[in-house]
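Risk mitigation, structural track. In case the binding assays with 2-acetamido-2-deoxy-beta-D-glucopyranose fail to produce interpretable data, a predicted complex structure has been prepared as a fallback.
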Amino acid sequence: MALAVAVVVAIGTAATRGSGAMETCTNSPRILFAEPCEQIDQDEEARIEHAGTPPRRVPRKCREAFSRFGDIEIFEDEQEFVDDTFNGKGSHYAYTAADIAAYGKEAETLEPVVAALLAENKRLVTKVAVFGSQKPVIEGLLLSLGATKIVTVEYNALTLDHSRIRTVQGNRLPEDVGRVRLAVLVDALQHDGLGRYGDPVCPDADLLTMDHVLQRASYALVSVPTGRDAVVWNAHRIYGEHRLPLLLQGWEVQTSQAFTSPILNRTVFLLRKPSPTL
Ligand SMILES: *[C@@H]1O[C@H](CO)[C@@H](O)[C@H](O)[C@H]1NC(C)=O
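Fallback model:
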Protein backbone atom coordinates (compact mmCIF):
# COMPACT_ATOMS: atom_id res chain seq x y z
CA MET A 1 0.00 0.00 0.00
CA ALA A 2 2.99 2.27 -0.30
CA LEU A 3 1.29 4.17 -3.12
CA ALA A 4 -1.45 5.41 -0.85
CA VAL A 5 1.01 7.80 0.77
CA ALA A 6 1.08 10.95 -1.27
CA VAL A 7 4.30 12.87 -1.52
CA VAL A 8 4.42 16.57 -2.16
CA VAL A 9 6.90 17.47 -4.85
CA ALA A 10 7.82 20.53 -6.79
CA ILE A 11 6.49 19.96 -10.26
CA GLY A 12 7.95 22.73 -12.34
CA THR A 13 10.33 20.35 -14.05
CA ALA A 14 7.73 17.78 -15.00
CA ALA A 15 6.62 19.27 -18.27
CA THR A 16 8.20 17.69 -21.29
CA ARG A 17 7.65 20.92 -23.18
CA GLY A 18 5.57 24.02 -23.31
CA SER A 19 4.00 25.90 -20.50
CA GLY A 20 5.13 26.85 -17.07
CA ALA A 21 1.66 26.02 -15.80
CA MET A 22 2.16 22.33 -15.20
CA GLU A 23 1.14 21.94 -11.58
CA THR A 24 -0.19 18.58 -12.63
CA CYS A 25 0.28 16.57 -9.52
CA THR A 26 0.05 18.03 -6.07
CA ASN A 27 -1.07 16.62 -2.78
CA SER A 28 -4.74 15.96 -2.12
CA PRO A 29 -6.53 13.37 0.05
CA ARG A 30 -7.98 11.16 -2.67
CA ILE A 31 -4.96 11.35 -4.91
CA LEU A 32 -2.98 8.11 -4.94
CA PHE A 33 -0.03 9.35 -6.91
CA ALA A 34 1.27 12.78 -6.17
CA GLU A 35 3.79 13.09 -8.94
CA PRO A 36 3.87 12.23 -12.61
CA CYS A 37 4.92 8.63 -13.10
CA GLU A 38 7.54 9.56 -15.62
CA GLN A 39 9.42 11.41 -12.89
CA ILE A 40 9.63 8.41 -10.62
CA ASP A 41 9.94 5.98 -13.46
CA GLN A 42 13.24 7.05 -14.84
CA ASP A 43 14.95 3.70 -14.86
CA GLU A 44 12.12 2.01 -16.66
CA GLU A 45 11.56 1.07 -20.22
CA ALA A 46 8.35 3.09 -20.29
CA ARG A 47 10.29 6.23 -19.50
CA ILE A 48 12.91 5.61 -22.14
CA GLU A 49 10.23 5.05 -24.74
CA HIS A 50 8.34 8.08 -23.59
CA ALA A 51 10.79 10.96 -24.17
CA GLY A 52 8.11 13.46 -25.16
CA THR A 53 5.88 10.90 -26.84
CA PRO A 54 3.22 8.81 -25.09
CA PRO A 55 4.35 5.52 -23.52
CA ARG A 56 2.80 2.56 -25.30
CA ARG A 57 1.98 0.79 -22.05
CA VAL A 58 0.95 1.93 -18.62
CA PRO A 59 4.23 2.53 -16.78
CA ARG A 60 4.57 -0.30 -14.25
CA LYS A 61 4.85 1.95 -11.23
CA CYS A 62 1.59 3.70 -12.11
CA ARG A 63 -0.46 0.58 -12.67
CA GLU A 64 -1.97 0.27 -9.24
CA ALA A 65 -2.84 3.94 -9.14
CA PHE A 66 -4.51 3.77 -12.57
CA SER A 67 -6.45 0.66 -11.58
CA ARG A 68 -7.07 1.94 -8.07
CA PHE A 69 -5.70 -1.33 -6.72
CA GLY A 70 -7.73 -3.46 -9.09
CA ASP A 71 -11.12 -1.70 -8.99
CA ILE A 72 -10.68 -0.22 -12.46
CA GLU A 73 -9.85 -2.45 -15.40
CA ILE A 74 -6.93 -1.45 -17.63
CA PHE A 75 -7.07 -2.32 -21.32
CA GLU A 76 -3.90 -2.06 -23.37
CA ASP A 77 -4.76 -2.55 -26.99
CA GLU A 78 -2.49 -1.32 -29.77
CA GLN A 79 -5.58 -0.18 -31.68
CA GLU A 80 -6.48 2.22 -28.91
CA PHE A 81 -3.03 3.77 -28.78
CA VAL A 82 -2.96 7.39 -29.93
CA ASP A 83 0.01 9.70 -30.30
CA ASP A 84 -1.39 13.21 -30.52
CA THR A 85 2.11 14.61 -30.09
CA PHE A 86 2.83 13.49 -33.66
CA ASN A 87 5.97 11.72 -32.55
CA GLY A 88 6.96 14.45 -30.13
CA LYS A 89 6.62 17.34 -32.57
CA GLY A 90 3.44 18.66 -30.98
CA SER A 91 0.65 20.41 -32.84
CA HIS A 92 -0.32 23.99 -33.50
CA TYR A 93 -3.82 24.62 -34.78
CA ALA A 94 -4.93 28.13 -35.72
CA TYR A 95 -8.45 29.43 -36.35
CA THR A 96 -9.80 32.77 -37.49
CA ALA A 97 -12.88 34.48 -36.07
CA ALA A 98 -14.83 33.22 -39.10
CA ASP A 99 -13.70 29.62 -38.45
CA ILE A 100 -14.78 29.93 -34.83
CA ALA A 101 -18.22 31.21 -35.81
CA ALA A 102 -18.58 28.39 -38.35
CA TYR A 103 -17.67 25.75 -35.76
CA GLY A 104 -20.11 27.36 -33.35
CA LYS A 105 -22.90 26.81 -35.85
CA GLU A 106 -22.04 23.12 -36.00
CA ALA A 107 -22.19 22.71 -32.23
CA GLU A 108 -25.82 21.64 -32.22
CA THR A 109 -24.97 18.77 -34.53
CA LEU A 110 -21.61 17.85 -33.02
CA GLU A 111 -22.50 18.35 -29.37
CA PRO A 112 -26.30 18.40 -29.12
CA VAL A 113 -26.56 17.65 -25.41
CA VAL A 114 -23.93 20.20 -24.42
CA ALA A 115 -25.46 22.80 -26.75
CA ALA A 116 -28.93 22.30 -25.30
CA LEU A 117 -27.71 22.45 -21.72
CA LEU A 118 -25.75 25.65 -22.34
CA ALA A 119 -28.69 27.26 -24.12
CA GLU A 120 -30.91 26.43 -21.13
CA ASN A 121 -28.35 27.95 -18.79
CA LYS A 122 -27.41 30.99 -20.78
CA ARG A 123 -27.15 33.08 -17.60
CA LEU A 124 -23.96 31.16 -16.78
CA VAL A 125 -22.33 32.05 -20.08
CA THR A 126 -20.42 35.19 -19.12
CA LYS A 127 -16.76 34.73 -18.26
CA VAL A 128 -15.99 31.15 -19.18
CA ALA A 129 -12.96 28.86 -19.14
CA VAL A 130 -12.72 26.05 -21.70
CA PHE A 131 -10.39 23.16 -20.88
CA GLY A 132 -9.07 21.06 -23.76
CA SER A 133 -9.84 22.29 -27.24
CA GLN A 134 -8.53 21.40 -30.65
CA LYS A 135 -11.42 22.71 -32.69
CA PRO A 136 -13.26 25.78 -31.38
CA VAL A 137 -16.73 24.21 -31.40
CA ILE A 138 -17.44 25.08 -27.78
CA GLU A 139 -15.89 28.54 -28.09
CA GLY A 140 -18.06 29.32 -31.13
CA LEU A 141 -21.13 28.13 -29.28
CA LEU A 142 -20.27 30.18 -26.18
CA LEU A 143 -19.76 33.32 -28.25
CA SER A 144 -23.14 32.82 -29.92
CA LEU A 145 -24.67 32.57 -26.43
CA GLY A 146 -23.15 35.88 -25.43
CA ALA A 147 -19.94 34.97 -23.58
CA THR A 148 -18.12 38.14 -22.55
CA LYS A 149 -14.72 36.52 -22.10
CA ILE A 150 -13.40 33.05 -22.89
CA VAL A 151 -10.12 31.63 -21.69
CA THR A 152 -9.20 28.42 -23.46
CA VAL A 153 -6.66 26.19 -21.75
CA GLU A 154 -5.08 23.67 -24.09
CA TYR A 155 -2.04 21.47 -23.76
CA ASN A 156 -0.90 21.99 -27.33
CA ALA A 157 -0.27 25.31 -29.04
CA LEU A 158 -3.52 26.85 -30.22
CA THR A 159 -4.31 30.18 -31.84
CA LEU A 160 -7.89 31.45 -31.68
CA ASP A 161 -7.96 34.81 -33.35
CA HIS A 162 -10.84 36.51 -31.58
CA SER A 163 -10.95 39.60 -29.35
CA ARG A 164 -13.00 37.86 -26.66
CA ILE A 165 -10.85 34.72 -26.50
CA ARG A 166 -7.54 34.26 -24.78
CA THR A 167 -5.67 30.98 -25.22
CA VAL A 168 -3.34 29.58 -22.62
CA GLN A 169 -0.99 26.69 -23.24
CA GLY A 170 -0.91 24.21 -20.38
CA ASN A 171 -3.56 22.73 -18.14
CA ARG A 172 -4.24 25.42 -15.55
CA LEU A 173 -5.81 28.87 -15.54
CA PRO A 174 -3.18 31.50 -14.87
CA GLU A 175 -3.65 33.51 -11.66
CA ASP A 176 -4.33 36.76 -13.52
CA VAL A 177 -7.47 35.28 -15.08
CA GLY A 178 -9.08 35.31 -11.65
CA ARG A 179 -12.35 33.47 -11.16
CA VAL A 180 -14.68 32.41 -13.94
CA ARG A 181 -18.42 31.86 -13.77
CA LEU A 182 -18.37 28.63 -15.75
CA ALA A 183 -15.76 26.10 -16.78
CA VAL A 184 -16.49 23.80 -19.71
CA LEU A 185 -14.68 20.46 -19.92
CA VAL A 186 -16.09 18.51 -22.85
CA ASP A 187 -14.20 15.28 -23.50
CA ALA A 188 -11.16 16.66 -21.75
CA LEU A 189 -10.81 14.92 -18.39
CA GLN A 190 -10.79 11.37 -19.71
CA HIS A 191 -7.50 12.08 -21.48
CA ASP A 192 -5.79 13.94 -18.67
CA GLY A 193 -2.57 12.26 -17.54
CA LEU A 194 -2.46 9.49 -20.16
CA GLY A 195 0.42 11.13 -22.03
CA ARG A 196 -1.49 11.17 -25.26
CA TYR A 197 -0.90 14.88 -25.83
CA GLY A 198 2.63 14.83 -24.48
CA ASP A 199 1.33 15.59 -21.00
CA PRO A 200 3.06 13.91 -18.07
CA VAL A 201 1.67 10.47 -17.28
CA CYS A 202 -0.26 11.02 -14.08
CA PRO A 203 -2.96 8.61 -12.85
CA ASP A 204 -4.97 11.28 -11.03
CA ALA A 205 -4.45 14.22 -13.37
CA ASP A 206 -8.21 14.30 -14.06
CA LEU A 207 -9.04 14.63 -10.36
CA LEU A 208 -6.40 17.30 -9.91
CA THR A 209 -7.83 19.27 -12.83
CA MET A 210 -11.31 19.11 -11.28
CA ASP A 211 -9.90 20.33 -7.96
CA HIS A 212 -8.33 23.26 -9.80
CA VAL A 213 -11.64 24.02 -11.51
CA LEU A 214 -13.43 23.90 -8.15
CA GLN A 215 -11.04 26.57 -6.91
CA ARG A 216 -11.62 28.86 -9.84
CA ALA A 217 -15.15 28.37 -11.22
CA SER A 218 -18.65 28.65 -9.78
CA TYR A 219 -20.13 26.16 -12.25
CA ALA A 220 -18.70 23.41 -14.43
CA LEU A 221 -20.10 21.65 -17.43
CA VAL A 222 -18.38 18.30 -17.73
CA SER A 223 -18.82 15.63 -20.38
CA VAL A 224 -17.05 12.29 -19.89
CA PRO A 225 -17.48 8.70 -21.06
CA THR A 226 -19.50 6.76 -18.51
CA GLY A 227 -20.10 3.06 -18.07
CA ARG A 228 -18.05 0.39 -16.40
CA ASP A 229 -14.85 1.88 -14.94
CA ALA A 230 -11.89 1.47 -17.26
CA VAL A 231 -8.63 2.90 -18.46
CA VAL A 232 -8.38 2.26 -22.18
CA TRP A 233 -4.68 2.98 -22.67
CA ASN A 234 -3.97 5.54 -23.84
CA ALA A 235 -7.15 6.73 -25.50
CA HIS A 236 -9.32 7.56 -22.47
CA ARG A 237 -10.82 6.65 -19.14
CA ILE A 238 -14.40 5.50 -18.64
CA TYR A 239 -16.01 6.70 -15.43
CA GLY A 240 -18.13 4.28 -13.43
CA GLU A 241 -19.05 3.54 -9.84
CA HIS A 242 -15.45 3.79 -8.66
CA ARG A 243 -14.04 6.84 -10.35
CA LEU A 244 -17.07 9.00 -11.08
CA PRO A 245 -17.70 9.85 -7.40
CA LEU A 246 -14.02 10.84 -7.08
CA LEU A 247 -14.31 13.10 -10.12
CA LEU A 248 -17.42 14.85 -8.82
CA GLN A 249 -16.23 15.12 -5.24
CA GLY A 250 -16.82 18.57 -3.79
CA TRP A 251 -19.39 19.54 -6.43
CA GLU A 252 -23.16 19.63 -6.33
CA VAL A 253 -24.74 17.97 -9.38
CA GLN A 254 -27.41 20.28 -10.79
CA THR A 255 -28.37 18.13 -13.76
CA SER A 256 -26.93 15.21 -15.62
CA GLN A 257 -27.86 13.73 -18.94
CA ALA A 258 -26.58 10.43 -20.25
CA PHE A 259 -26.50 9.77 -23.96
CA THR A 260 -25.57 6.70 -25.88
CA SER A 261 -23.49 6.24 -28.97
CA PRO A 262 -22.35 3.04 -30.66
CA ILE A 263 -18.77 3.55 -29.55
CA LEU A 264 -18.89 5.30 -26.20
CA ASN A 265 -21.70 6.30 -23.89
CA ARG A 266 -21.24 9.65 -22.27
CA THR A 267 -22.83 11.79 -19.59
CA VAL A 268 -22.94 15.55 -19.40
CA PHE A 269 -23.03 17.04 -15.92
CA LEU A 270 -23.82 20.57 -14.90
CA LEU A 271 -22.06 21.05 -11.58
CA ARG A 272 -22.23 23.83 -9.08
CA LYS A 273 -19.74 24.76 -6.43
CA PRO A 274 -21.69 24.49 -3.16
CA SER A 275 -22.17 27.86 -1.52
CA PRO A 276 -20.61 28.17 1.91
CA THR A 277 -23.11 27.37 4.64
CA LEU A 278 -23.84 30.30 6.86
C1 LIG B 1 -24.46 2.25 -23.89
O1 LIG B 1 -25.63 2.24 -23.12
C2 LIG B 1 -26.60 1.32 -23.62
C3 LIG B 1 -27.88 1.56 -22.84
O2 LIG B 1 -27.64 1.63 -21.47
C4 LIG B 1 -26.06 -0.07 -23.50
O3 LIG B 1 -26.99 -1.01 -23.95
C5 LIG B 1 -24.77 -0.17 -24.31
O4 LIG B 1 -24.19 -1.44 -24.13
C6 LIG B 1 -23.79 0.91 -23.91
N1 LIG B 1 -22.70 0.92 -24.86
C7 LIG B 1 -21.42 0.87 -24.51
C8 LIG B 1 -20.45 0.96 -25.63
O5 LIG B 1 -21.06 0.80 -23.35
